[in-house]
Design goal:
Blueprint: E1 2-5, H1 11-19, E2 23-26, H2 32-39, E3 44-47, H3 55-60, E4 66-69, H4 79-84, E5 88-91, H5 97-112, H6 115-123, E6 141-145, H7 149-159, E7 164-168, H8 174-179, E8 183-184, H9 187-193, E9 196-199, H10 213-218, E10 223-227, H11 236-244, E11 248-253, H12 264-269, E12 274-276, H13 285-303, H14 317-320, H15 326-341, E13 347-356, H16 363-375, H17 389-395, E14 399-405, E15 414-423, E16 429-439, E17 443-449, E18 452-456, E19 460-468, H18 473-483, E20 488-494, E21 503-510, H19 516-523, E22 528-536
Parallel strand pairs: 1-2, 1-3, 3-4, 4-5, 6-7, 6-9, 7-8, 9-10, 10-11, 11-12, 13-14
Antiparallel strand pairs: 13-15, 15-16, 16-17, 17-18, 19-21, 19-22, 20-21
Helix pairs in contact: 1-13, 5-7, 15-16, 16-17
């Protein structure tokens, strides 16, 4: 498959793609119009921060399956548009963690000890030792806003300077915060107490301008601000104003709202109390090799239909990468496919039930898998996958529920149940429910359709129908299939719960697909009704 590469990457990326049998095409200086043309043939796309992947480019990339971001942030990718189109976006969140943490420490030390202006003064022939008196880190307080992978590495390194470390992160649970070394406080308390403040949050609508004029006014007199995360999280105009008023002791910046920086950013960069670098926190040979390798491997996995470990979009995809989850995932998907095809009506809602020993932490990804299975047979334009199934369901106003019961019915130790609600054509609802379990940990079986108990592998072509419980019914349908050269691979018969005489359910697995003509012949057989042909993919 074709993988478009639009930013400079370590050569290991190209080598891994070629070894996997894919074709890397490098276009690092293309205009938006040229990118649109290149994107038309791409199945995968790898980029860094230098390429903006817009909704318009995604619209042109009709074969695109996956975007690999060689780094952490994905603010240069229209994530909403990618998700709606079912395009997986993955990143490499740990590849540059160490480099970014080390660069943060380097900038913090450089601004505390005024290293750049002192070095520049010496180069110019001056000897100004008294002018560049710095600040020790010993027994100072460090405030970390965003205690993720990079923030934690920064904390670990600067604790060795015997600093007190405070943390603020509204997305961490109390349980996680109890295990981490920083003392967690409110954002206001962190700003009030910290001598040095460093930011390590992603950039989104909630974090844009997170540290603005009001927050900087709250900072201690003479505090230092460091931003190696994303431009715009710290308001540049407010930061420059605080420096010019003498409220802050200094600042260090590696990232800018617009890159290369221009306009207002230049005033900040040129301020004598600012140490500025050109977005190089991740620019070490080690980091670039790790990021390129990890991104390439994830893109290859996605193109080959395997799970990835660092998805950015797609609920539950990280869990789907775990081998022990995949059999449950497949079972939920095929149950959704079967339930979807048992009715010709318009889908209105879905309930996924996890019963017995189905691990509760699987519930979210199983709900998405069942949604994918149901929506895959609803005649939607474009692909339906684990990435866009929740979005497609929301756009169509589907009612989606989850149920859990620690006890599985009957003799089952674990059971998944999918119940789909459809419009019946008269303004009412009709419900189709199916249930399944796993044999030997990885063998999915259909064990109930509606109120009928049975056992059948839900794979390939299936034929379901209700019939009168009397001799000759199976033979009549068998003759129709034989005349059409359709071979029966397996079948399951379920008599009515109250015994002989009522409608029975027959489920037949065939080696060939059931055509509309064959289905209609079966439906015309006396004593047969509710005929549905199902394809499980």
């Amino acid at each position: 498959m074709v993988v478009l590469i639009t930013d400079k990457l370590d050569p290991v990326c190209h080598r891994l793609l070629e070894e996997a049998g894919h074709e890397p095409r490098v276009h690092t200086d293309a205009s938006p119009a040229e990118l649109a043309e290149h994107a038309r043939e791409a199945h995968g796309w790898i980029t860094r921060s230098g390429t903006t992947i817009t909704a318009e480019l995604l619209e042109a990339a009709e074969h695109l399956q996956v975007i690999g971001r060689a780094g952490v942030g994905v603010d240069n990718i229209d994530l909403e548009a990618a998700t709606r189109r079912g395009i997986l976006v993955c990143n490499a969140p740990r590849g540059n963690t160490l480099s970014a943490a080390e660069h943060t420490c380097a900038l913090l030390l450089a601004t505390a000890r005024q290293v750049p202006p002192a070095a520049r003064s010496l180069l110019e022939g001056a000897w100004e030792r008294k002018k560049f008196a710095g600040t020790e880190l010993f027994e100072k307080t460090l405030g970390i806003i965003g205690v993720g992978k990079i923030g934690r590495r920064v904390a670990a390194r600067l604790e060795s300077f015997e600093m007190e470390v405070l943390g603020y992160d509204p997305y961490l649970s109390d349980e996680v915060m109890e295990r981490l070394p920083p003392t967690f406080v409110t954002k206001e308390e962190l700003l009030e107490r910290s001598d040095f403040v460093t930011v390590h949050t992603p950039k989104n609508e909630e974090t844009r301008g997170l540290v603005g004029e009001a927050e900087l006014a709250t900072c201690k007199e003479g505090a230092f601000i460091v931003n190696c995360a994303r431009g715009g999280i710290v308001d540049e105009a407010a930061l420059l104003g605080a420096l010019e008023r003498g409220h802050l002791g200094g600042a260090a910046v590696d990232v800018y709202p617009q890159e290369p920086p221009s306009g207002a950013s230049r005033g900040l960069i040129e301020h004598p109390k600012v140490v500025a670098t050109p977005h190089i926190a991740a620019s070490t040979g080690e980091a670039q090799e790790k990021v390129a390798r990890r991104t390439a491997r994830q893109v290859i996995a996605a193109l080959e239909g395997e799970a990835v470990s660092s998805p950015v979009n797609g609920m539950g995809l990280r869990m789907a990468a775990q081998p022990e989850v995949r059999p449950y995932l497949r079972l939920a998907d095929v149950l959704g496919q079967v339930a979807s095809q048992l009715s010709a009506g318009r889908l209105r809602g879905l309930t996924i039930g996890c019963h017995g020993e189905v691990p509760p932490e699987y519930a979210e990804v199983l709900r998405v898998a069942a949604l994918r299975g149901v929506l895959a047979h609803q005649g939607l334009d474009g692909p339906v996958n684990l990435v866009n199934a929740p979005t497609l369901a929301k756009e169509r106003g589907l009612r989606v529920k989850e149920e859990r019961d620690p006890d599985a019915p009957g003799s089952f130790t674990r059971l998944l149940e999918v119940e789909a609600v459809f419009e019946d054509g008269d303004g009412g609802d009709e419900t189709r429910s199916v249930a399944g379990t796993l044999f030997d940990e990885s063998d999915p079986r259909l064990v109930r359709v509606g109120t009928h108990d049975l056992e059948l592998r839900p794979e390939g072509s299936l034929l379901f129908y209700e019939n009168e419980d009397r001799p000759g019914m199976l033979a009549a349908v068998g003759r129709i299939l034989a005349d059409a050269n359709v071979n029966i691979a397996a079948l399951a018969l379920s008599r009515p719960a109250d015994g002989h005489g009522g409608p029975a359910l027959t489920a037949i697995s065939t080696d060939e697909a059931i055509t509309g003509a064959v289905r209609d012949q079966v439906a015309a057989t006396e004593g047969v009704e509710g005929v549905r042909a199902v394809e499980v993919v």
